[in-house]
From TrEMBL:
GO terms for molecular function: GTP binding; metal ion binding. This is Probable GTP-binding protein EngB. The keyword Metal-binding applies. The lineage of its organism: Bacteria, Pseudomonadati, Pseudomonadota, Alphaproteobacteria, Sphingomonadales. Keywords: Cell cycle, Cell division, GTP-binding, Magnesium, Metal-binding, Nucleotide-binding, Septation. It comes from Novosphingobium umbonatum. Its cofactor is Mg(2+).
Length: 220
């Protein structure tokens, strides 16, 4: 095992232990004035409506219903904060932020604009935001709403990772093709990591790696 591999294994084990401990819902913020005080690092999760964001958050934290999943796309219309680590009543190690789903065509234009404003202002002004994970559906690849989100992150100079979800829903050959295309797209964006992670909340593929990445990002 190389030194780099040993370091990654140690990080994955620390992340496993951390996420098996305290993970609590803190609050929902429909507007910036409701945000919690920026006193600990934060890692945000973004993605199109129905990309599997809630399922991934539940898989990462080992909870069945920490983040509510819904058959109705576009349900999450606010920023939801979860505290990870630490002792209840004291500051956590960091927070996870579940951002509003985007790209839902049936959402009223006024609601869409409200989401965009909330997300844009959050990204530009949140000094403790260490990283954003942008989730991409393996069945569809990068779509125009994803590009819009990526450009928003580029503009806000917020580093982000692209993460493929629902990898179990496509054939291996199709997954490899989508993965290559998403990597190529990532290289066009100034704030994107060149590496694209592959996950499945159903099979557990990539979950340990995502946990480690979140912990590493929070500690940067």
């Amino acid at each position: 095992m190389t030194e780099e591999e040993a370091t990654q294994q140690a990080l994955m084990e620390r992340a496993r232990k951390l996420f098996s401990g305290r993970v609590d819902f803190l609050l929902s913020a429909p507007a910036l004035k409701f945000l919690p005080d920026p006193v600990v690092p934060e890692v945000a999760f973004a993605g199109r409506s129905n990309v599997g964001k809630s399922s991934l958050l539940n898989a990462i934290t080992g909870r069945k219903s920490l983040a509510r999943t819904s058959v109705t796309p576009g349900r999450t219309q606010e920023l939801n904060f979860f505290e990870v680590g630490g002792i209840s009543g004291e500051l956590p190690d960091f927070r996870l932020v579940d951002m509003p789903g985007y790209g839902y065509a049936k959402a009223p234009p006024k609601v869409v604009e409200q989401w965009k404003k909330l997300v844009r202002e959050f990204l530009r002004g949140r000094v403790v935001l260490k990283r954003t994970l942008v989730l991409i559906d393996s069945r569809h690849g990068v779509k125009p709403p994803d590009l819009e989100m990526m450009e928003m992150l580029d503009g806000a100079a917020v580093g982000y990772r692209l993460v493929l979800t629902k990898a179990d829903k496509v054939k291996a050959s199709e997954l490899a093709e989508v993965h290559a295309k998403v990597i190529a797209e990532a290289r066009k964006h100034s704030a994107a990591y060149p590496e694209v992670m592959i996950t499945s909340s159903e099979t557990g593929l990539g979950i340990a790696e995502i946990r480690a990445a979140v912990l590493g990002d929070a500690e940067v």
